[in-house]
Design goal:
Elements: E1 7-8, E2 14-15, E3 18-19, H1 27-38, E4 51-56, H2 63-66, E5 72-73, E6 87-92, E7 97-103, E8 108-115, E9 118-125, E10 131-137, E11 145-146, E12 155-161, E13 168-179, E14 183-189
The structure holds zinc ion.
Length: about 190
Amino acid sequence: MHDDSMRRTGDDQLVYGMPKHMSGISPNEVFGKIMTANGGGNWSADGRLRAYWTVHPEPGACPACRAMEGLQYLEEPRRPHPNCKCEIRRHDMPVVDIRGSLDGFGDHDMQNFAASQKITVTVINQGLFPAGVRILVDRDWEHVKETGLIGIWRYFSFEFTKFGDLPLYWQVEFFYDCGDNSLLSYRIEG
Ligand SMILES: [Zn+2]
């Protein structure tokens, strides 16, 4: 029997056996536990999910196999019984590496893309003055990130994490909001 704790079921999903609205533990800590449980095989070195699996029961499949339909598995599920002919499909996560820039005070840019549960956003100030941006993810103003003033040729990185059915759709917006006119380059990796 496969490990039920690794099932993902949308709003009621469990992540390593814990409901996603758990209190007192951050998503990154949860990821740490999943990585440990998986031995790291399905995860890149920096903790990004590289694939997930779905099960597609054959016609007339037994209840055990049918129960595996419609879920997303973070590791390849084991078949419930010998001679199972159901299809197990691997879905590779898109590899995200998006670059762009903001040129001067008041500039704005936006990216929409599909990715895994975790992305890293890095902003580099290419000069000529200290400057900073706000980074808004999925229009969640409550958790908008501010780099503050970044020195010339310095950079700032943020990680963002969310859960849900894969792949996840992300919207990342950049607002140039402090400092003199400078050139700020950004990179989104996921
Ligand atoms: Zn089967």
